[in-house]
């Protein structure tokens, strides 16, 4: 789902997401605010906290819910896949899923916290750290202090598209979120067990929100858990759409119609911002919270 073209609000400190300053999504070129037929309402932003420990508890709940979303969408493949969360109390550490625990069963009490030396500092009963998860995510969190959350899994359409070794074509409105905002990592050296491979992936990602890992799968990052998750879900669907569109066009001896750079750049301002990612993820999290009944909170 693409976010509405709307006036959105950024939370002020200690307001738990209540409106403060407004940020307006762009109008269509040549259209003034006075000419716009519908004026959209203000939207809340992520909650803010006065206590870093309170923030940690909240974010761990969002991370556990993120795994339930990945499980619901079938993004699990055996024990592969991982989502990490930078710890707000000790930012040089991060939370990650324990190796071998199913996405659809993960609770906040299962999550493990590790440092940049791969030492497990705390967590649930299963304290197994996926080496590939550590190598990739530690490198990203160190290289990108703006990133709160990073997500990677071997989703079927993402890994299929990544076998092509090419960037995404901008052929749909949704794909505009990744216009000039995704990278292609063109190396594959097996399971990421070496520090250099993780560093190379982080370098290829650069300042973008997503990377296509050739012969491997998708990687997305965000300043919130929600945005990182939505970018992954959306990128997976964009890969699916392009695979189908390319096949349909090729069968007719044609090519897909690409969106122009100017139009894609303009559309990115509505669908590709960090706030757009956070807001677009809200329905995903709301549905899973309702379906799980908060089961992902607490202990096993």
Descriptors:
single chain, 300 residues, alpha+beta, eight-stranded mixed sheet, two-stranded antiparallel ribbon, 7 helices, globular, disordered N terminus
Indicate the topology.
Blueprint: E1 7-11, E2 19-24, H1 52-72, E3 82-86, E4 93-96, E5 112-115, E6 120-122, H2 131-143, E7 149-153, H3 156-162, E8 182-185, H4 195-205, E9 210-213, E10 217-222, H5 225-251, H6 261-271, H7 274-292
Parallel strand pairs: 8-9
Antiparallel strand pairs: 1-2, 3-4, 3-7, 4-5, 5-6, 7-10, 9-10
How many helices? The count is: 7
- State the distance separating the first and last CA atoms: 33 Å
Shape: globular
Radius of gyration: 19 Å
The amount of beta strand, in percent, is 15-25%
Question: Structural class of the secondary elements?
Answer: alpha+beta
Please bin the fraction of helical residues.
Answer: 25-40%
| Contiguous runs where pLDDT drops below 50 for at least 5 residues | 1-22
Biggest sheet character:
8 strands, mixed
- Total beta strand runs: 10
Topology as a string of helices (H) and strands (E): EEHEEEEHEHEHEEHHH
Report mean pLDDT, rounded to a whole number: 88
Strand order of the largest sheet: 6-5-4-3-7-10-9-8
């Amino acid at each position: 789902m693409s976010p509405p073209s709307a006036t959105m609000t950024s939370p002020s400190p200690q307001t738990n997401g209540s409106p403060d300053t407004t940020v307006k999504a762009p109008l269509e070129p040549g259209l003034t605010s006075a000419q716009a037929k519908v004026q959209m309402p203000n939207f809340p932003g992520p909650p803010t906290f006065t206590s870093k420990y309170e923030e940690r508890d909240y974010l761990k709940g969002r991370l556990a819910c993120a795994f339930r979303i990945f499980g619901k969408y079938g993004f699990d493949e055996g024990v592969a896949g991982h989502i990490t969360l930078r710890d707000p109390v000790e930012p040089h550490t991060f939370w990650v899923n324990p190796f071998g625990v199913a996405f659809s069963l993960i609770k906040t009490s299962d999550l493990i916290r590790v440092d940049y030396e791969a030492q497990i500092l705390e967590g649930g009963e299963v304290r197994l750290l996926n080496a590939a998860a550590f190598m990739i995510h530690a490198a990203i969190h160190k290289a990108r202090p703006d990133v709160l959350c990073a997500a990677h899994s071997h989703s079927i359409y993402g890994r299929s598209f990544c076998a092509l070794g090419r960037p995404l074509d901008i052929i749909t409105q949704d794909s505009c979120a990744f216009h000039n905002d995704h990278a292609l990592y063109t190396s594959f050296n097996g399971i990421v067990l070496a520090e250099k491979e993780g560093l190379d992936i982080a370098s290829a990602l650069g300042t973008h929100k997503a990377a296509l890992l050739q012969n491997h799968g998708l990687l997305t990052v965000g300043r919130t858990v929600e945005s990182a998750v939505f970018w992954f879900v959306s990128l997976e669907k964009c890969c699916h759409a392009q695979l189908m569109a390319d096949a349909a066009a090729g069968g007719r001896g044609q090519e897909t119609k690409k969106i122009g750079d100017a139009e894609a750049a303009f559309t990115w301002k509505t669908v590709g911002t960090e706030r757009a990612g956070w807001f677009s993820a809200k329905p995903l999290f709301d549905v899973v919270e309702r379906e799980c009944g908060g089961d992902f909170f607490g202990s096993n």
